[in-house]
């Protein structure tokens, strides 16, 4: 799961990662304000003396884990949406992430929040209403929805830069050329550019791999590595180590590494296509 989350970070450009971090931090601040006001109203209704500063301090401390949980969930779901991760795999990742998040919250209460209040952890846990634990998975689900919305905006931006799903615009100064994506068998990241690879040549295009993922997966490409996508129909053979694919060779003879995440996507793709009935010949 940690590897999957790290690949989620790598699958998004830094600028977009920062936008997600900004959005989730703003959501965290908004929840802090809401929870502070709610607690202040409850204490006033019960006649308990308090100050806003004290409540803000307490709420800030107990909510610290969510500063990491929110962006982790949002980035993971955005990556899943952009890479068209199979539903079962996506749900499994989110459930595992949610369980880990709730466990982290529990540990934080025991080892950080209870000492902050100078109270026994058992007493603090007994005083936390059950509804608070129910809210945790709800907030995780809402954060995943935020990642979905963000991925949708990325897809819309990408669609505005392409004339058609099977073409891509190559810009060089004032000149614009339209490249037929049917000629492309692989795409590789090269810094701020991507290399569009055909059987006999390459074109450099100023874009990130994440910006092209949605368009390319619709055309039968598989994101086998954080830096590479290949056309599934061009796969000639694969090399395996310890039961999983670690490298692919295309019909053109070009080879590409396959990450653990890429191997999962490859297996899911083959399972959902007619070509999956024919096992890939193995190199080892």
UniProtKB/TrEMBL annotation:
Residues 168-272 form the HTH LytTR-type domain. Signal peptide: none annotated. The chain crosses the membrane at residues 20-38, 58-76, 88-113, 133-151. GO terms for molecular function: DNA binding; phosphorelay response regulator activity. The keyword Transmembrane helix applies. PROSITE patterns: HTH_LYTTR (PS50930). Keywords: DNA-binding, Membrane, Transmembrane, Transmembrane helix. PANTHER family: STAGE 0 SPORULATION PROTEIN A HOMOLOG (PTHR37299:SF1), TRANSCRIPTIONAL REGULATOR-RELATED (PTHR37299). This is DNA-binding LytR/AlgR family response regulator. It comes from Maricaulis maris.
């Amino acid at each position: 799961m940690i590897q999957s989350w790290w690949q989620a970070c790598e699958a998004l450009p830094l600028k977009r990662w920062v936008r997600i971090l900004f959005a989730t931090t703003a959501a965290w601040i908004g929840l802090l304000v809401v929870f502070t006001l709610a607690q202040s109203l409850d204490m006033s209704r019960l006649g308990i003396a308090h100050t806003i500063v004290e409540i803000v301090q307490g709420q800030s401390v107990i909510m610290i884990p969510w500063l990491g949980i929110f962006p982790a969930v949002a980035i993971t779901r955005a990556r899943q949406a952009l890479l068209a991760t199979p539903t079962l795999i996506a749900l499994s990742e989110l459930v595992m992430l949610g369980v880990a998040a709730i466990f982290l919250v529990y540990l934080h209460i025991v080892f950080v929040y209870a000492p902050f209040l100078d109270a026994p952890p058992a007493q603090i846990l007994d005083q936390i209403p059950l509804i608070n634990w129910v809210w945790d998975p709800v907030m995780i689900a809402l954060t995943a929805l935020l990642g979905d919305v963000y991925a949708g905006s990325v897809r819309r931006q990408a669609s505005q830069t392409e004339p058609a799903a099977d073409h891509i615009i190559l810009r060089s100064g004032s000149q614009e050329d339209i490249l037929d994506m049917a000629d492309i068998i692989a795409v590789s990241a090269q810094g701020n550019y991507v290399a569009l690879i055909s059987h006999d040549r390459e074109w450099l295009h100023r874009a990130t791999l994440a910006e092209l993922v949605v368009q390319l997966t619709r055309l039968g490409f598989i994101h086998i590595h954080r830096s590479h996508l290949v056309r599934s129909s061009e796969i000639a053979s694969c090399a395996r180590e310890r039961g999983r694919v670690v490298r692919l060779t295309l019909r053109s003879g070009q080879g590409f590494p396959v990450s653990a995440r890429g191997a999962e996507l490859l297996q899911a793709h083959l399972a959902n296509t007619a070509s999956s009935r024919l096992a890939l010949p193995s190199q080892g």
